[in-house]
């Protein structure tokens, strides 16, 4: 297994891992967004609470959560390793450098964007994931749906999105995520060697549309509940 370890600890290997985990996390974002859009159904949160209960108690979903956490861990760790290697390879910047002419703003600031997203992720998990998994211990109120008691995560969402600074953090983080995805999506295909003059322009365009659409979908939720209060 020595060749395996050397391959995936190399710069190229780590880029491949980042690409695979990044695309996997993109699929998670789509699934998560679809579930969150049930907040707009207009049934006082019944559908969203049923969806949340299913996600919290289905054994397959719980197993996938472990895979998801590992995906995040590997993605973040490899990003840190690659950033350190890049700085070590070029400790002193070029005397004549025009980064705006050779790269996009998002590609030059992936570290900053990633940090913003990581901070938001910690806040978001603490505010929603912990109550959803620990129920009453996490401060959730209960709600009765068809004579069955459920945790009222919908109420938690509504209350959270009535706090202006939390809404602001959420929206700013979604903007950061959009820029992160715009660069990361096309870079993932490039790192995996899936580039072709015929298909690469489509991949880039699809990546931009995907990134903006998904992040807009997430951002519109707190904005809607804040102004609907």
Automatic annotation (TrEMBL):
Lineage: superkingdom: Bacteria
Q: Name one GO cellular component term.
A: membrane
* Protein's UniProt keywords contain Membrane: yes
List the transmembrane segments: 16-40, 60-80, 110-129, 163-182, 202-227
Keyword annotations from UniProtKB, A to Z: Membrane, Transmembrane, Transmembrane helix
**Which NCBIfam families does the UniProt entry name for this protein?**
sdhC_b558_fam (TIGR02046)
Q: Which named protein is this? A: Succinate dehydrogenase / fumarate reductase cytochrome b subunit
Q: What is the lineage of its organism?
A: Bacteria, Pseudomonadati, Bacteroidota, Cytophagia, Cytophagales
């Amino acid at each position: 297994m020595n060749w395996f370890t050397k391959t995936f600890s190399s710069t190229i290997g780590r880029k491949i891992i980042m690409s695979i985990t990044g695309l996997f996390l993109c699929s998670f974002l789509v699934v998560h967004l679809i579930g969150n859009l049930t907040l707009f159904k207009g049934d006082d949160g019944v559908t969203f609470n049923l969806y949340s209960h299913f996600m919290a108690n289905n054994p397959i979903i719980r197993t996938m959560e472990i895979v998801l956490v590992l995906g995040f861990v590997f993605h973040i760790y490899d990003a840190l390793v690659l950033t350190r290697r890049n700085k070590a390879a070029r400790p002193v910047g070029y005397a004549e450098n025009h980064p705006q002419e050779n790269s996009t703003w998002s590609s030059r600031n992936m570290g900053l964007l990633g940090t913003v997203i990581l901070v938001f992720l910690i806040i978001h998990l603490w505010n929603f994931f912990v109550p959803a998994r620990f129920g009453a211990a996490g401060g959730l109120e209960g709600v009765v749906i068809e004579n069955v008691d459920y945790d009222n995560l919908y109420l938690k969402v509504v209350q959270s999105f009535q706090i202006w600074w939390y809404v602001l953090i959420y929206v700013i983080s979604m903007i950061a995520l959009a820029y992160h995805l715009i660069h990361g999506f096309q870079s993932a295909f490039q790192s995996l060697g899936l580039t072709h003059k015929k298909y690469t322009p489509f991949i880039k365009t699809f990546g931009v549309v995907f990134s903006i659409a998904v992040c807009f979908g997430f951002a519109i939720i707190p904005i809607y509940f804040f102004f609907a209060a």
